[in-house]
Amino acid sequence: MSKNFQQSIKGVCGVILIALFVFSDQPSVYAKFVDINIQTFFLLKSIMLFVVYGLFVVSLVLVARSHNRILKPIILVLVSISSVYADVFYYASGKVMEYIDFVILYQSKANVLDALAMYSDEIMASLLRLCALWGGFLIMPKRADSKSHIIGRILSGGGGILLLLLVVFVMLVCIYRQGAATNKLPSPLSPSALFLAYIYDNLLTTHPSYSYTTTQMPSNPRKIPHIVLIVDESVRADYSSFKRLRIPKNWHIIDYGNATSAANCSHISNIMLRKGVRHNSVAQDFYENPLIWSYALNAGYRTYLYDAQMGGRGHDFFDAKELKLIHNNISKTNINQDFEIVDSLTYLNDETPSFTYIIKKGSHFPYAAPQEIVAEVQDSYTRDSKEKVMYLKNVIYQSDMFFEALLSRQYQQGVLFVYTSDHGQNLKDVDGLTHCSTTNPYFGEGEVPFVVISNKTLDELKNHQNENLNNASHFNIVPTILAYMGYDIEQLGYAKGASLFDRVDFINGFFYGIPFGYFGKQPNFAKKAEK
User: How far apart are CA 365 and CA 308, in angstroms?
Assistant: First the structure.
């Protein structure tokens, strides 16, 4: 067997190993492709996805064939560290690292030794992937270094430049999308790119540290022992369960009609709710406000989380430090129907006060419901569309039946349920996404139900019930809950019209994109029609 043939075999094997490293990304390239096109096919984004992955392979192959004894090992080590960093985060959190995740991790760098000890198993799993990269580099033959191969030598040395350009490209995507969209690109490129974006961001803006807790204490007695905030998924206000349900006489209810969500995307609305941000200082409050768990703990409430989607792991900005503020994570993610959540709420009969945050499975696309679910459709808007009919059935299956089960219970202690949805829906009313639109979002993406239910009278809220009908928003939820916990909300920085105990200020729109002030950009706000 000739030496040239052996070198060719080694070269082919080296390329295969490097490609195996790149395409063993988590989640897979195919999963990212499906995610990009899950609602509408995006040709340019799809091409970009495969081109970037292909160029990543090419850049690593060129570096592996380089004669440079200094640059080659440096690049290998840097890519390896970056890959381990990204993979460990994915294995530990269940999500791909994005800008906000990087910022929080970077600001927690003093705890790096603790992280190494805690995530040793995840680190070992990530090292297995590196075996392919290192194997490819070790067996890859160097490009022939003769004066007649000038182009070849340029290509060999160009691998590092191409790799740097890819990192810069990911950084620019991060900046352009205000911290989003990098989760669809090769994860080993992310830490370096996000670090460069972080440097750029801090040259423009100095962000305060991300706050989790407060020392603020209630100044009044609590109004009710049990408070439950129920956040549905993708339920638009005009499809609200409370347009169909019959409420048992032992329950008091105020339906605020068509309310406005904080944002048109689940993770943004959920963190804005847990942070209790004010509509006129979203970016500042995102960093500086404590989480609602801290207020609940200081007021003597035991804290509960039921996240039927992912159990508080890998989405909606949950992290390990926040989860430590929750006494009981009672989440079950393997349930088929949301009414099963009700069986886990038996502690609402206990004398120990509790605050519960529920994230329902809800009615996320693709819409589905068993055949036996019957929807009595009255309006032609829904009746003339199979997709809208299925959406209605989905809401009936997951939300109507949830509340039928919940309101059939009789609790011995006082309970306050506050119900809303994370965002609304675009039911093909206009071309585009069902929600999470980042350009010209449809107003229906921000229309949500808002209902308060209790087995105790709601007289204080009834004082302004009519004035607040169709005027309330997500920004009124946390101030109202804090007032029930015994806090003077004006001492916490909220305006008088922030809670439902007063006439609320109408917010004529919702935020979209990433509204947390990254890269010196003001939050994007979609205005609804003036009332």
Answer: 16
> How many other C-beta atoms lie within 10 A of the C-beta of residue 510?
30
Q: What is the H or E stretch that residue 268 is in? A: helix 266-275
Comparing C-alpha atoms, which of 258, 253, 245, 235 is closest to residue 403? 245
Q: Distance between CA atoms of 254 and 416, rounded to whole angstroms?
A: 11
Highest mean pLDDT out of 3-12, 85-94, 125-134: 125-134
pLDDT confidence tier of residue 148, bands split at 50, 70 and 90: very low
Coil/strand/helix, residue 38? coil
CA separation for the pair 104, 255 (Å, rounded): 38
The DSSP symbol for 435 reads S
Distance CA 252, CA 434 (A): 33
Tokens read off for 510: 């919702």
513, 389, 405, 471: CA torsion to nearest 10: 50
Answer for the pair 338, 362: CB distance below 8 angstroms, yes or no: yes
3-class DSSP state of 231: strand
Strands (E), 294-446: 302-307, 328-329, 354-359, 415-421
Residue 248 — left, alpha, or beta (φ > 0 → left; ψ -120 to 50 → alpha)? Answer: beta
DSSP alpha helix (H) spans, 276-385: 282-288, 292-298, 320-323, 380-383
DSSP letter, residue 235: -
Report phi then psi at 366, rounded to 5.
Answer: -75, 135
Rounded to whole angstroms, the Cα distance separating 100 from 45 reads: 22
pTM over the 0.85 mark: no
Q: What is the pLDDT of residues 251-265, one digit of tens each?
A: 999 999 999 999 999
The helix (run of H) or strand (run of E) holding residue 47 is helix 43-64
User: Is residue 306 left, alpha or beta, with left meaning phi > 0 and alpha meaning psi from -120 to 50?
Assistant: beta
Q: In whole angstroms, what is the distance from residue 129 CA to residue 173 CA?
A: 26
- Could you tell me if 413 and 348 are in contact, meaning their C-beta atoms sit under 8 angstroms apart? yes
If one counts every other C-beta atom within 10 angstroms of the C-beta of residue 349, the result is 13
Compute the residue count for the chain.
Answer: 531
CA dist., res. 355 & res. 485, Å (int): 9
Question: Alpha helix (H) ranges present in 95-213?
Answer: 99-107, 112-118, 120-139, 150-176, 190-204
Whether residue 391 is predicted with pLDDT greater than 80 in this model: the reply is yes
Q: Quick one: residue 300, left, alpha or beta (phi over 0 = left, psi -120 to 50 = alpha)?
A: left
Decide: helix, strand or coil at residue 51.
helix
Query: Residue 247, Cβ neighbours under 10 Å: how many?
Result: 14
Tokens of 190: 């992310």
Contacts of 384 (CB under 8 A, 6+ apart): none
Q: In terms of Cα–Cα distance, which of 516, 407, 482 is closest to 229?
A: 482
In angstroms, the CA 233 to CA 266 distance is: 8
Cβ(425)–Cβ(435) below 8 Å: yes
